[in-house]
Write a structure and sequence with these properties.
Length: about 240
């Protein structure tokens, strides 16, 4: 079968490759459809998002390649819309909605920038309680569709990125189940995001959560969250079986 891969970052944000190089690699890999996106603009943190004045250039470029390569591959342009982004997204083919920050006392704290920063954040704001931290995180995630109007739910359990707490725990289960239950009625797919497989041995969300989402009738899409063209479909062969039809 030919894969579709929609969560791919380029030089327009924090990816390492040009859009053209990504497309050429995707054609080489015989992909059916490729989607290039960028981190939506966040005024409170410009370190890894797109530059505010580059969005039109991004769209025009992808539109040009769409036509140029239409006989070889389907190309789409999207945005990974952060929960706290306020930029317009209407012109895109699809949207992945993601929570990357916690907001406390009018300040934004990244939750996936480094292990050290996450430890510091949880110690300072939550007295070291990772379940309270997860509670705030999943509360945002549960609203990510209504807030961002996304068409795909991004890395559902990003809060587990650094393996800093025990997720085999009823307190934690209650939090993620509550968020899943709130998202299911929107009837849009959850990503099975393979970018963390090398570190964690499983994707976002974890296999336990995938099974819970399945039991509730949720659907999935495979994504690599690639920042390098070498990773466009990394681990897809192992996780395609979870997608269903
Ligand atoms: Zn993300
Ligand atoms: Zn991403």
């Amino acid at each position: 079968m030919r894969y579709t891969s929609l969560h791919i970052h380029s030089l327009f944000c924090d990816g390492y490759d040009s859009i053209l190089d990504i497309i050429k690699e995707a054609i080489k890999l015989n992909l059916d459809t490729i989607g290039i996106l960028y981190h939506s603009y966040t005024s409170f943190d410009e370190s890894y998002c797109i530059k505010k004045d580059k969005i039109d250039e991004f769209i025009n470029l992808v539109e040009r390649y769409k036509k140029e390569f239409q006989n070889l591959i389907n190309i789409k342009h999207g945005v990974e819309q952060d929960y706290f982004s306020e930029t317009d997204t209407k012109q895109h083919d699809y949207l992945i909605g993601s929570v990357h920050y916690i907001k406390k006392n009018d300040k934004y704290y990244p939750i996936d920038s480094s292990k050290e920063e996450t430890i510091k954040l949880v110690n300072e704001l939550y007295n070291g309680d990772y379940y309270e931290f997860s509670k705030d995180y999943f509360n945002l995630v549960s609203q990510v569709v209504s807030k961002t109007k996304c068409t795909i739910i991004g890395h559902f359990d990003l809060v587990t990125k650094y393996n800093l707490f025990d997720t085999d725990n009823e307190k934690y289960r209650l939090l993620y189940k509550n968020a899943v239950d709130k998202l299911i009625p929107y009837n849009i797919p959850f990503e099975i995001n393979t970018s963390i497989v090398d570190e964690k041995g499983e994707p976002y969300p974890s296999l336990e959560i995938i099974n819970y989402i399945k039991s509730k009738g949720g659907k999935f899409i495979l994504s690599s969250d690639a920042h390098k063209k070498e990773n466009l479909i990394k681990h897809f062969d192992e996780y395609i079986k979870y997608i269903g039809d």
